[in-house]
């Protein structure tokens, strides 16, 4: 598996099924939380009397970039923010596909630097 971790495989895995965006976000959030828990934060929200909470935002901190995917009533907002010492210097918006490409590239960089991240991403691809 070590030689098989590539951008194309990771990006395809992240894109698996985006037709039902709420289900896609829930599956993606769970996979990312399990694979790279130190880099991933998931915000879930529900109604006042709701027993279940749906994914509102996924944040991945990777290097100097913070990748944010936000969902509001089925509308997706994808951003990456360049952070230096906790200060946002630059914010870029993109599509869901662009966000997946950004995150895939960044996670591959992290995987090349950290065996824990690499192992987590390998688990992500196998799940």
Describe the structure in your own words.
- It contains four helices and five strands.
- It has a five-stranded antiparallel β-sheet, with helices on one face.
- Mean pLDDT is 82; it is low at 1-5.
- It is of the alpha+beta class and 127 residues long.
- The protein has one domain.
- Helix 1 (7-15) crosses helix 3, helix 2 runs antiparallel to helix 4 (115-126) and helix 3 crosses helix 4.
- The two termini are 13 Å apart.
- Helices cover 43% and strands 32% of the residues.
- Strand 4 and strand 5 form a beta hairpin.
Rg over CA atoms: 14 Å
Element order: H for helix, E for strand: HHEEEEEHH
Largest sheet: 5 strands, antiparallel
Point out poorly predicted stretches: 1-5
Q: Beta-strand level of the residues, as a percent range?
A: 25-35%
What is the CA–CA distance across the termini?
A: 13 Å
Q: Give the total of domains.
A: 1
Structural class: alpha+beta
- The average pLDDT is 82
| Coarse shape | globular
User: Can you give the helix content as a percent range?
Assistant: 40-55%
Q: Count of DSSP helices?
A: 4
- Please report the total strand number as a whole number: 5
Q: Strand order across the biggest sheet?
A: 1-2-3-4-5
Summarize the structure.
With 127 residues, the chain is of the alpha+beta class.
Blueprint (SSEs and pairs):
Elements: H1 7-15, H2 21-35, E1 40-45, E2 54-62, E3 65-72, E4 75-84, E5 87-94, H3 96-113, H4 115-126
Antiparallel strand pairs: 1-2, 2-3, 3-4, 4-5
Helix pairs in contact: 1-3, 2-4, 3-4
């Amino acid at each position: 598996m070590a030689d098989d971790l590539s951008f194309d495989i990771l990006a395809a895995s992240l894109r698996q099924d985006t037709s039902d965006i709420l289900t896609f976000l829930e599956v993606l959030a769970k996979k990312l939380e399990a694979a790279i828990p130190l880099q991933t934060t998931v915000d879930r929200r529900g109604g006042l009397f709701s027993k279940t909470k749906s994914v509102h935002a996924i944040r991945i901190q990777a290097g100097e970039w913070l990748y944010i995917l936000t969902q509001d009533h089925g509308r997706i907002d994808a951003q990456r923010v360049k952070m230096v010492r906790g200060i946002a210097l630059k914010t870029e918006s993109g599509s869901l596909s662009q966000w997946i490409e950004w995150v895939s590239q960044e996670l591959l960089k992290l995987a090349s630097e950290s065996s824990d991240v690499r192992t987590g991403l390998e688990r992500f691809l196998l799940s």
